[in-house]
Amino acid sequence: MPLLVMKFGGTSVADLDRIKNAAAKVQREVERGYDVIVIVSAMSGKTNELVGWVEQTSPLFDAREYDAVVSSGENVTAGLMALTLQEMGVPARSWQGWQVPINTTAAHSAARFVDIPRANIDQKFAEGFKVAVVAGFQGLGPDGRITTLGRGGSDTTAVAFAAAFAAERCDIYTDVDGVYTTDPRITSKARKLDKIAFEEMLELASLGAKVLQTRSVELAMRYKVRLRVLSSFEDTDENSGTLICDEEEIMESKVVNGVASSRDEAKITLVTVEDRPGISAAIFAPLAEAGVNVDMIVQNISEKDYEDHPGSVTDMTFSVPINQVERAKRAMEEAKASGHIAYDELVVDTEVAKVSVVGIGMRSHTGVAAKMFKALADENVNIKVISTSEIKISVLIDRKYMELAVQALHDAFGLEAA
Amino acid sequence: MPLLVMKFGGTSVADLDRIKNAAAKVQREVERGYDVIVIVSAMSGKTNELVGWVEQTSPLFDAREYDAVVSSGENVTAGLMALTLQEMGVPARSWQGWQVPINTTAAHSAARFVDIPRANIDQKFAEGFKVAVVAGFQGLGPDGRITTLGRGGSDTTAVAFAAAFAAERCDIYTDVDGVYTTDPRITSKARKLDKIAFEEMLELASLGAKVLQTRSVELAMRYKVRLRVLSSFEDTDENSGTLICDEEEIMESKVVNGVASSRDEAKITLVTVEDRPGISAAIFAPLAEAGVNVDMIVQNISEKDYEDHPGSVTDMTFSVPINQVERAKRAMEEAKASGHIAYDELVVDTEVAKVSVVGIGMRSHTGVAAKMFKALADENVNIKVISTSEIKISVLIDRKYMELAVQALHDAFGLEAA
């Protein structure tokens, strides 16, 4: 029997009517001949309520108790979804993480999958059940206690089940109808993509397109799980949404397939840093220890030649998430105070944004960077920092130009046309 | 290490402040040198919300899914209580039913305990944990799925743990400060009892004193678990509340210790029933099959001698819960239609109440019934039906006299004085 995994997020199961609506989508796939594993999130708002109670009770909470409390939201949805399907005449039952069991590492609140044995669920399918409704986001640790996977973990649960059960596809139902060439709120020219390669989705996910968690796309790529993002709130068929798949499945691809943008960036520059071997390590080790996620890094050999810096000096610029600026400053100031690094000044620019173009076609095409820089120059957008990967070029610019830059790049790479 | 079981009901853990208040009571017992097993209910209102969702989703719900959904409320409280205790510096962890495991029968939504192995929790006490916080009302069925014990099951969970762990006592914290000689809303002369025997409590519990579930008292009596009812909302010490214990622990007891009353009764009379061997079985078997809980039964040999009933005839009167009257009527009418029984008329009286006096002293004292009937006669209260047990006398009277009867009996048996 072919098998599908279908995952419904919090807004898709926010109340009993929406659960019914989601169940109807499951029923349709059963009628098409699939066995279905449904992964559900907590009803929207529930997880926040539970997390709030835990944090109010104990600011530095025991993560094992956090997991025990917070996982209950998904259990409620799983039971209600199973009951809804039964009402529709679809043989279904719910599964909590420990019942499957979904074996994870011991890292409470940030657990990772170890394995998902198929035997228990396969036996129920053999007995005539058509649907297994599994509580997402949770698992069973080696200590016999409930673990959770961290926020967005339900997407990852869905992909892990699709891999374990060799599902034909993993459908992620959410409140958007697919993956777009760029944020439709920035330009109405944004176009929904029918297909996108795992690598591209990974760049877009980590660049701030909030459709899917990076981790779930990574897992899908590793196990070649065909992933589809589509809307819970629209009539959908087998061609709806966006398929995220191996690039071999995508016949012809544009050089650039998406433009991503993020406001949550800040630029930090250490002015007049001694330029010596090991200086990068001396700067970035304390930042890593402080838990700062450094993204882009640029080192400029300074032309300055101050009397009090007779040796070679440089400016070091890097970007961090805007909510980590204070942590980064403190780490740098402590490193300076303890004599590990020396710099004249630390300059923070929080008025920046990151804009990126992404496309697997870049691997075989040259001139993408030049085209990008020209498009920005034509709009008089100044580039502050550049970083590149095999399939992505990112630039840091003044935040006020972000929308302008996205529109210009969307036009320049012809993304409006399919 | 001596061990206590402490149980907190829904209103006692209704919000984070109340959980903190309950945790302080647990901490005090730990400081006195006890290991403590805490049994918690769901935060008040939560179980009703979950039950409502299940019933709206599926009126004839799958009890296994009901249990999976509804049990989540207790899991949340257990985790929050453990976190609160940890914040107070008390080493504590939460336990869900399947983790202990609390093994029950397969009867979902109405499961009964099979056994509660001590090994897992004992090991944690040995490792230095002082408190095990256990989610009440739930267990693990032989099918590997979550079971629940039915409403009020958390009291029963508490008693079962007290029995399994040979606890010194099982303290039930609730929103009343003990067991009273009668309902304090009926007479201000009602007095809190310091001690009461299991058998008496059992009669009072089943007679409508809503302090404790009958089932939990039965279990306590069977395993000789000393049970104490006391208030969550007052400062309490080792003498607070009411101790429910073996009668041997009660030095001197009055003949009557309590007056119970219930409005939820109805009286049904079958007029002119053929009086033959087997007629009682013919009447009460269909009622039992229809799930009607018949309480009191009276059969009067009728003096009537109608021409069309040449044989011996009788009137049969019985009481049922008021919400089962329709079911009882239907069962009787069907039995009549199918020829199993014959009667002229079925008369329902829903304007009745049951008033009972209870006391283990009745076993060795005579004249209690006479004293009761005289007290009622003095107030011109007519008795419709009488039933007695070894330690209880119950009468059915007009509902409008219920409060008057309770007050008269409370006075007659001198219950105001300790």
Automatic annotation (TrEMBL), chains A, B:
<dbReference type="InterPro" id="IPR002912">
    <property type="entry name" value="ACT_dom"/>
</dbReference>
<keyword id="KW-0808">Transferase</keyword>
<comment type="pathway">
    <text>Amino-acid biosynthesis; L-lysine biosynthesis via DAP pathway; (S)-tetrahydrodipicolinate from L-aspartate: step 1/4.</text>
</comment>
<dbReference type="Pfam" id="PF01842">
    <property type="entry name" value="ACT"/>
</dbReference>
<protein>
    <recommendedName>
        <fullName>Aspartokinase</fullName>
        <ecNumber>2.7.2.4</ecNumber>
    </recommendedName>
</protein>
<dbReference type="InterPro" id="IPR018042">
    <property type="entry name" value="Aspartate_kinase_CS"/>
</dbReference>
<comment type="pathway">
    <text>Amino-acid biosynthesis; L-methionine biosynthesis via de novo pathway; L-homoserine from L-aspartate: step 1/3.</text>
</comment>
<dbReference type="InterPro" id="IPR045865">
    <property type="entry name" value="ACT-like_dom_sf"/>
</dbReference>
<dbReference type="GO" id="GO:0004072">
    <property type="term" value="F:aspartate kinase activity"/>
</dbReference>
<keyword id="KW-0418">Kinase</keyword>
<dbReference type="Pfam" id="PF22468">
    <property type="entry name" value="ACT_9"/>
</dbReference>
<dbReference type="InterPro" id="IPR041740">
    <property type="entry name" value="AKii-LysC-BS"/>
</dbReference>
<keyword id="KW-0067">ATP-binding</keyword>
<comment type="similarity">
    <text>Belongs to the aspartokinase family.</text>
</comment>
<dbReference type="InterPro" id="IPR054352">
    <property type="entry name" value="ACT_Aspartokinase"/>
</dbReference>
<dbReference type="Pfam" id="PF00696">
    <property type="entry name" value="AA_kinase"/>
</dbReference>
<keyword id="KW-0547">Nucleotide-binding</keyword>
<feature type="domain" description="ACT">
    <location>
        <begin position="268"/>
        <end position="349"/>
    </location>
</feature>
<dbReference type="InterPro" id="IPR036393">
    <property type="entry name" value="AceGlu_kinase-like_sf"/>
</dbReference>
<keyword id="KW-0457">Lysine biosynthesis</keyword>
<dbReference type="InterPro" id="IPR005260">
    <property type="entry name" value="Asp_kin_monofn"/>
</dbReference>
<dbReference type="InterPro" id="IPR001341">
    <property type="entry name" value="Asp_kinase"/>
</dbReference>
<dbReference type="InterPro" id="IPR001048">
    <property type="entry name" value="Asp/Glu/Uridylate_kinase"/>
</dbReference>
<feature type="domain" description="ACT">
    <location>
        <begin position="357"/>
        <end position="418"/>
    </location>
</feature>
<keyword id="KW-0028">Amino-acid biosynthesis</keyword>
